[in-house]
Amino acid sequence: MPQFRLRRAVATLAALPLLALGAGQAVAAPAPQPPGAAHPAVAAGRVTAIEDQVARTLATALADSALRERVRTATAGSAGPAALTPLAAAAPGASARKLADTTARADREVAAAKGLGGDLGPLLRVQLADRTMRGALDGGAVPLVATAATDEHARTLRAYDTAGRVHVLETARVPERPVYLVDLDTARTLAAGIALLQREFGSQAPTGAQTAAPASATAAAGWWATKITSIQVADDEEPWFKGAAEMFALVTGFGLDGKVRVDSVAMPYLQYDGTLYRPNQILVNWSNYKYNLADVVLMEDDGDTNYLALAQAVAAVLLTIADQGAYIALVNAVLGALPTSWWTDDPDYVESWYTLARTSTGRLDGARGNGFMTVEPYFVQQF
Predict the structure, then answer these.
(1) Among 233, 363, 227, 231, CA closest to 302
(2) CA 372, CA 353: separation in Å to the nearest integer?
(3) Spatial distance between the Cα atoms of 121 and 126, rounded to a whole number of angstroms
(4) Coil, strand, or helix at residue 156?
(5) How far is 329 from 326, CA to CA, in rounded Å?
(6) Which stretches of the chain are assigned E, i.e. beta strand?
(7) Which residues contact 252 (CB under 8 A, 6 or more apart)?
(8) Which is higher by pLDDT, 340 or 28?
(9) Residue 14: predicted pLDDT
(10) Which run of H or E residues covers position 98?
(11) How many CA atoms lie within 13 A of 263 on its CB side?
């Protein structure tokens, strides 16, 4: 199965006492966690524990041959991952009812752990780990169940059988026995996370991060934008035991009022490394910015991202930066706000681009060397 994999950021970068911002500005790195925000490492551990519990419950429930057949059918062919809660709720039997109760509770707990409130609906999914396992599964083999690992360097993976026993699988090769993976519907969590980021940044509007342009910002005839015509992240190995990534970008600059502005842009299509995507997506609305330069930080939700902690950490740092009458690069401020765990354990930070201009066109390589995008100016005509 294709896999999105990212190179680790250099651990010492996160340990630097100061990251230069330019123009005499500096920001501490990493920023302390704001009050009330769940520590990302704790949140990530909680999500992993929830997924593991669901994997074991699903594995034991698959002792019921009728439920096993339902799951096999639901994940067959091009059906892709199946949401677990509705799948279990529609199946008869005590095992299915227990599974439905467990997954419904787990859906709420995962949403809370990611800072997204208590209920986003079905979040946990099941899918066959690799399409080469389909033949054995269709032939009657009883599958194991594991969680989609967040550590792409993992050498082993823990899976469960129908008796709840643990099996240790080597990640270097695809197992002969079929394996179901339990993971998150990150498209759903990403959409909710982007909405949360916008709300959190917007709540700082009187004194800091902006998300809504003044009414006078947009010219009657329309506005200039930067459009992504293509984008790709670095190629790497493709392990069988992980699902696709979900990406988003933070665009930063100074708003028309001279205060720092942050806009979050969802990129749910950007799932696999080594794949060139052609989204024709608007990245920057220049009518919202005072200067003709902005910065972009590309991030990944690999299942563990706590959006509330991210928004609060970034906003807390950017609030300290004042407009000095000239463009100031803000990428380092955003990176300095990222919690330490996002530099050392998890691939949440992907790439960054400095000084993206309204006139930028063509290929732009990322500062980290982990990806590139091609862009062009684009005028959005007003009706």
Answers:
(1) 233
(2) 9
(3) 15
(4) strand
(5) 10
(6) 18-22, 25-28, 82-83, 124-128, 144-147, 156-160, 166-170, 179-184, 222-233, 246-254, 260-267, 281-285, 293-301, 349-357, 362-365, 371-381
(7) 260, 261, 262, 263, 294, 295, 296, 297, 318, 330, 331, 333, 334
(8) 340
(9) 28
(10) helix 94-113
(11) 20
Q: Which of 107-111, 125-129, 176-180, 259-263 has the lowest mean pLDDT?
A: 259-263
Q: Is 178 helix (H, G, I), strand (E, B) or coil?
A: coil
In this prediction, residue 35 has a pLDDT band, given cuts at 50, 70 and 90, of very low
Pick 120 or 282 by higher pLDDT. 282
Give dist(CA 102, CA 236) in Å, integer: 36
Here the tokens at position 4 are 């999105």
> At 100, which amino acid appears?
A
Residue 52 Cα distances to 147, 164, 181, 188, 359, angstroms: 6, 12, 10, 20, 48
Structure tokens at 339: 């919690």
Euclidean distance between CA atoms 192 and 187, whole angstroms? 9
Six token digits for residue 17:
């006492």
Domain boundaries, the chain: 11-36+186-381, 42-184
- Phi-psi category of 355—alpha, beta or left, where left has phi over 0 and alpha has psi -120 to 50? left
CB atoms within 10 A of CB 23: 12
